[in-house]
Amino acid sequence: MIKHGFLAAAALVASLAGAPRPAEAGASLDAIKARGQLVCGIHNGIAGFALPDSQGRWQGLDVDLCRGLAVALFNDPEKVRFQPLSSSTRFTALGSGEIDVLFRTSTHTMLRDVTLGLRAITPYFYDGHGFMVKANSGVTKASEMAGATICLIQGTTNEQVTADYFRSNKLQFTPVLFERTDQAAAALQAARCDSFGTDASQLAATRASMPNPNDWTVLGERFSKEPYGPYVRRGDDEWFDTVRWYVNAVIEAEEQGITSANVDEMKATAANPNTRRLLGVTPELGQALKLSPDWAANVIRKMGNYGEMYERSMGLKTPVGLARGPNELWTNGGLLYALPMR
């Protein structure tokens, strides 16, 4: 399985090396503005991050972050085209210029950041690898799964994490690889696998979508660090900066208590210099990014701050029902921390 992962990574590097590149390096922001539309790579279907609703409209945290970036650029959340991508095609699609930015449950790792011709930007969601099993299986921890058949998604870090855990603990297992999460979930329910291994947030989303969620349990152990963040192509610092500081802005808004409901009042009355900068009362942040002075205020007004996006997509009142945990602000004991916007 490790050999398989190495060969897959090598093939991906080779494919990106030969893939067509944008016509002008460093011109992404101008090209997107001229096109009048952002093209955003997202998951091809997982509740909480990216999933079409009954009307066919994409919903989820990654989707909202894409729409918010469109607001920052155009003051219009509809000026975005979503490109659903599998785990095995997402980085190739970005490297070839098929999409402008990837918001797709993608872990930041060193080798992805330095070998694929792409840049990982900044984390917006913290997760960890886990396992889901039948509730009546009697399994309470991964070490009890010796000899198990485990469903995994091809092209993810979860392949290597699972192999590393079982190998280091001298346990045997049989991997069964799938292209999509729904395929793995179907195989698990059909008893083709004893367990499904992937990030805990995606296990929670998969469990919530099953006909009988109570038949399944997500084990409490976590076996990796999986910080999700957007990716862009390497060599375009201006576009990198735009996406980086956009993500920071929605986190900063929550830190400052700025919401979609109070943003206009805060903009009109705030004396705090940090708030005035963020909301464009003083224009230097927009000028630095070649955006309008009120770009962040527009995002917050139309899409909300990070906390509003999270609760709308996967919070405790949603079917996914995932507590913030490490995705709380640092001031509440979590890991989310906006870099200073000054």
TrEMBL record:
Domain (Solute-binding protein family 3/N-terminal): residue spans on this chain: 37-266
Protein name: Amino acid ABC transporter substrate-binding protein
Keywords: Signal, Transport
Gene3D superfamilies linked to this entry: Periplasmic binding protein-like II (3.40.190.10)
InterPro entries: Bact_solute-bind_prot3, SBP_3_CS, Solute-binding_3/MltF_N
Family: Belongs to the bacterial solute-binding protein 3 family.
Organism phylogeny: Bacteria, Pseudomonadati, Pseudomonadota, Alphaproteobacteria, Acetobacterales
Transmembrane regions: none
SUPFAM superfamilies: Periplasmic binding protein-like II
Signal sequence segment: 1-25
SMART domains, per database record: PBPb
